[in-house]
Amino acid sequence: MSDEDNKPPVNQWKTLDKDLKRIGRLEAGAHTVSRGLIAPGVALAFIVLAGLAAALLMGGQPGHLVVVAAAVIGAYMALNIGANDVANNMGPAVGSKAMTLGLALVLAAVFESLGALVAGGDVVNTVAKGIIAPNALPDSAHFVWAMMAALLAAALWLNLATWLGAPVSTTHSIVGGVVGAGIVAAGFGAVDWGTMGMIAASWVISPVMGGIIAALFLAIIKTKVVYVDDKIAAARKWVPILIGIMAGAFAAYLGLKGLKHLFDISLLQAVLIGIAAGIACWLVTIPLIRRQSEGMENRKKSLKSLFSLPLIVSAALLSFAHGANDVANAVGPLAAIVHTIEQGDVASQVGIPFWVMAVGALGISFGLLLFGPKLIRLVGNEITKLNPMRAYCVALSAAITVIVASWLGLPVSSTHIAVGGIFGVGFYREWHSEKRARELGIRKGKPVPVEERKRRLLVRRSHMLTVAAAWIITVPVSAGLSALIYVVLDWLTA
């Protein structure tokens, strides 16, 4: 046999290489697919654990399976609150690059949980702030199905809104759910339409008020600090004042939104606490800002670092207040169901067991860590360009708007305020840029063409339309889903 006969075929190794490449591509594809399933897998595990915890704690009590089902739905709702609502607190700080996304996720998870567990409250108005009177429902069983339908409908809508990239109000979602189930269970007369009218008014009041206040503070910063000859000297004077205003606003905000469950604080007391905290922080930060600003160049970029730390602190405080206030959206109906099953009667206000509060707190944190980055990036980066000064104005507007609204007796949404503040900052920048362009054109005798000015728009209109549409349909959609779920549950248990 010749040497030619002993040689392997020329394409033998080439075929093997092709097969190995195919296997490599298959492994890479499988890895990519499996990575996308990690977050849903962890979320599913948390939901199952919440159900198991409810089963162990309820034991063999009558109706324990209903509580297990409610705990599962409550955990699902908490995950969706974390995925959607928390972005409003952390988005501006991340978008302005005052902190990284990773730090924002950890900080928000810690302070949301602290707010929920420390100041979340042992009593909650379970029937969505008086929307439906408990005695309007036929019996306790129908009340349980109404609460369960409301909770599941709100969670489904929040999940869909997060997938669509629309930050919506969890409070409005659960209110819509209660209205839908209440109408089917007890008729239109069971709904307090006056309260519903106030909630509908907040769709306009919240974002407009938040936008105006955020734009006002940005105007102050630009006028008093940015567009002056000696920027560092102006910053030494005004930044401590602005930090003092922030500290005072947040002290009052936390008193009204976060600590009211621990202490009986009136609006006047909260404002007095805020004034004292604001003056103290103003005095403390004067030497700190002077020391920090030493050696800084006299330019706009240098000023941004002076606002970074106050912005991070404000984001943490917003998360604490949000956890204390909005955890009831996840666990309020669950607490009502647990009380009704255990006591056999319906109450407008009930105590929240610790395990129920823990489900809400942990669910919000897990939802934020697993699914929150999408909405955080949208709120922080995709509506308008933010820097620490602009993001600071957004955070400050959130606290001040809540205080003003409480004083006026107006119901407002923290989600709508924060997003409205971002739009307010963006539209003010557009107006200010247009004004400067016109003035420059007049001085040079060469006005800027209309086409060029249109290209300088600083707010993405498509996001504004998407968010506005989502806000408008939140209550109707969650109400419709809740009504349908209630009908199914009533039919299954008839």
From TrEMBL:
Family: Belongs to the inorganic phosphate transporter (PiT) (TC 2.A.20) family.
Keywords: Membrane, Phosphate transport, Transmembrane, Transmembrane helix, Transport
Membrane topology of this protein: Multi-pass membrane protein
Chief place of localization: membrane
Organism per entry: Thioclava indica
The keyword Ribonucleoprotein belongs to this UniProt entry's keyword annotation: no
Pfam families, per database record: PHO4 (PF01384)
GO MF term list: phosphate transmembrane transporter activity
Subcellular location: Membrane
Cellular component terms per the entry's GO annotation: membrane
Record-annotated membrane-spanning stretches: 37-59, 65-86, 98-120, 140-161, 173-191, 197-218, 238-256, 262-285, 306-324, 352-371, 391-408, 464-489
An annotated GO BP: phosphate ion transmembrane transport
Domain of life: Bacteria
Name of the protein: Phosphate transporter
